[in-house]
Design goal:
Blueprint (H helix, E strand, L loop, with lengths): L5 H10 L31 E4 L5 E3 L35 H18 L11 E5 L10 E10 L7 E9 L6 E8 L40 H6 L3 E6 L14 H6 L14 H16 L5 E11 L1 H12 L5 E5 L17 H7 L22 H6 L6 E6 L7 H17 L16 E2 L4 E6 L7 H15 L2
Parallel strand pairs: 6-7, 6-8, 8-9, 9-10, 10-12
Antiparallel strand pairs: 1-2, 3-4, 4-5, 5-7, 11-12
Length: 461
């Protein structure tokens, strides 16, 4: 881990506009007058400027590290080997990998996302009457999961759509959505360029005739004879600091306790736990083939579905969009968002022991390739965007390259290339797939369609 060298910092200062110097540009149709002091948001002390391309430069306050978007100054790094056991012995057989997988899973539980506590509650599911009018060609089942037995127990609202007229159990894609399915891309936009017009947003974003909270390719999913389900992640656990007394985490705290015990879960582990409880429900629903469940998430929820798949091998396939730092991109690359930024700005998403890695990225016993490898040999599709350099799309692809040897050991195929493929092309020759779209922090309709084609190989009857 390194700080910004003074010479480089001076060079950057010469080519960026600092936040204090950024002019107030009125939004179209909003009038030309500048915002009044009462309307202006307080300055963000972590923002120190922007690159000429528009990428935000942020300072991690504990380490003074400044965001890097220059490929030529990425420092050398060495990734931990997923195919070497903790005692130094090589992993050479699937049986060896089973031991190594348990080691890696424990490292993530203890030092990154936090473990699910032993007193995590059960979820009781109640299913409403089938509704054939909610969407043409589909049957909707509104399902409510009650978390625990408290008087004000939180509830998970799940909408399940299956193709009308199909009597056999069908494969399902579970979309883990941002609250309410509003037309927005999830996660912080810090450090990213603007998403291009005409692109689909994050999981389940509405565009045109697409219903809010549903995939932009919903009709195509149903036409393939598959179903899909949607859930708002905040039903499981709120996504903000100091909210541990709410949601599922709140049901596990002792009286007077305001945060999880050291080593216990942050919100990413809680959301992943919720995904597993939804799969529990799928196993009881006669309309669903629970052996063929894919999970889809975007941004922080892209991290979540990777971690959920690591913990729950019932998940048959993963679609992770723009998951970035501490998800699908390599932390050791020092490009875009960093461990320091995550620990500072999104600390509630991780277990408390994650803070030990601030300024010590190279000491972490894991990196993104190992998180991806925990899904092997199951299929994983990952995306990135050209103006979402905050999420380090090159680092996302390189993490798949480094995870490929695990897939190959298990008789599957890795990502199938060592160098970043051309933009706007899908690389899906193996069980790890990649798409790098033109644009920002978003999922495109083209990527959804590429994922469906990829998934067809695994969901065929």
């Amino acid at each position: 881990m390194r700080r910004m060298p003074p010479v480089l910092a001076a060079c950057l200062a010469a080519v960026v506009v600092t936040s204090a110097q950024t002019p107030q540009t009125p939004a179209p149709g909003r009038g030309a007058g500048p915002a009044t002091p009462a309307q202006q948001a307080p300055p963000d002390p972590t923002v120190v400027g922007r690159t000429p391309e528009g990428f935000t430069l942020r300072r991690a306050l504990k380490t003074d590290h400044i965001s890097n978007y220059n490929e030529s100054i990425v420092p050398p790094y060495e990734l931990p080997d997923p195919l070497v056991l903790a005692d130094g012995r090589p992993v050479s057989t699937p049986a060896d990998w089973s031991v190594r997988r348990a080691e890696i899973l424990k490292l993530y539980e203890e030092d990154i996302y936090g473990r699910v506590p032993d007193n995590a509650p059960t979820v009781r599911w109640t299913t409403g009457a089938p509704d054939a009018t909610a969407r043409e060609g589909a049957i909707l089942r509104r399902v409510v999961g009650t978390i625990g037995t408290g008087a004000n127990a939180p509830t998970i609202n799940l909408n399940v759509y299956t193709p009308a007229g199909v009597t056999r159990p069908v494969p399902v894609i579970l979309l883990v959505n941002f609250g309410g399915g509003a037309a927005r891309a999830g996660g912080s936009a810090a450090g990213r360029g603007a998403a291009p017009a005409g692109r689909a947003g994050g999981a389940g974003q509405g565009r045109g005739n697409v219903l809010p909270g549903q995939p932009p390719v919903a009709g195509e999913i149903l036409a393939r004879g598959w179903g899909y389900a949607t859930v708002g992640y905040a039903d499981i656990q709120p996504d903000r600091a100091n909210s541990f007394t709410e949601g599922v985490i709140g049901t596990t705290l002792a009286p007077g306790q305001t945060r999880p015990s050291p080593g216990d879960w942050g919100t990413i582990s809680a959301w992943a736990w919720g995904i597993s409880r939804i799969i529990d429900y799928f196993e009881t629903d006669a309309s669903i083939d629970a052996t063929r469940v894919a999970v889809q998430g975007f941004s922080r929820l892209g991290k979540t579905v990777l971690w959920a798949s690591a913990m729950d091998t019932r998940i048959a396939a993963v679609f992770s969009g723009c998951a970035g730092e501490m998800g699908s991109s390599l932390s050791r690359r020092d490009f875009g968002e960093t461990v320091d930024d995550m620990a500072q700005n999104h600390h509630w998403q991780f277990g408390s022991r994650f803070q030990q890695w601030v300024g010590r990225w190279n000491d972490m016993p894991v990196d993104a390739h190992m998180l991806i490898a925990l899904s092997a040999p199951r299929p994983v599709f990952i995306t990135g965007g050209t103006t979402d350099q905050w999420s380090d799309p090159k680092g996302e692809f390189l993490a798949q390259v480094a995870a490929s040897p695990v897939y190959e050991l298990l008789g599957a195929k890795g990502v199938g290339a060592a160098n970043l493929p051309p933009v706007d092309t899908t690389l899906a020759t193996g069980d790890l797939a990649w798409h790098y779209h033109t644009g920002g922090h978003t999922l495109t309709v083209e990527e959804w369609r590429a994922f469906l084609t990829f998934l067809e190989r695994y969901f065929k009857a």
